[in-house]
Write a structure and sequence with these properties.
By secondary structure, this protein is mostly helical. The protein has one domain: dinb family like domain (Four Helix Bundle (Hemerythrin (Met), subunit A)). 57% of the residues lie in helices and 5% in strands. It contains six helices and two strands, in the order αααααββα. A two-stranded antiparallel sheet has the order 1-2. A hairpin with a 2-residue loop joins strand 1 and strand 2. The longest helix is centred in the C-terminal third of the chain and has 27 residues. The protein starts with 14 loop residues before the first helix and ends in a 5-residue tail after the last helix.
């Protein structure tokens, strides 16, 4: 993905288009940050002692998309993709046998499904997770924050790997 291919969030629009526009911008930014690297570079833990890697971030965000949209908003009974209660950091840590192509395909599919679920719901629709009630609006705002934070991590990791910097 090239920088100029990223979704630009609208400057003017209704609440849904602004929220989904910013979320798609951040999703595209993550993909842009991962473009042009080898499989080994995507697995590299470039900021020791942290075990975080770009591939781990992508796996983590696939799990986050799945958890919030498919499990919580849509009520599907699904396990996390890469982590578990016994291995809560499996998305970041268990990369040795991970197929980069498969991780990208899984993340893209979770994003596609999240978009479908979001489009079918009102921003005011609610659901319960644990002992808390959430709205779809709250999930979209949280996901923007989640991607923005992890895009900052991706900036640092990418610069450490090959010197590339950018927004």
């Amino acid at each position: 993905m090239r920088d100029e291919d990223r979704t630009e969030p609208p400057d003017v629009g209704d609440e849904r288009s602004i929220l989904t526009g910013f979320l798609d911008f951040h999703r595209d930014t993550l993909e842009w940050k991962l473009t042009g690297l080898t499989d080994e570079q995507l697995r590299e833990r470039a900021a020791p002692p942290s075990s975080m890697s770009l591939l781990g971030l992508l796996r983590h965000l696939a799990d986050v998309e799945r958890g919030w949209f498919r499990v919580d908003v849509n009520g599907e009974a699904l396990d996390p993709l890469y982590s578990s209660s016994q291995d809560p950091d499996g998305d970041f840590d268990d990369l040795d046998g991970a197929s980069v192509e498969s991780v990208f395909a899984t993340w893209r599919e979770e994003v596609r499904l999240a978009r479908e679920i979001t489009a079918a719901r009102s921003l005011d629709d609610t659901f319960t997770s644990g002992d808390r009630m959430f709205s779809v609006r709250r999930v979209l705002v949280h996901m923007i924050e989640e991607y923005a934070r992890h895009n900052g991590h991706a900036d640092l990791l990418r610069e450490r790997i090959d010197g590339a910097t950018g927004e």
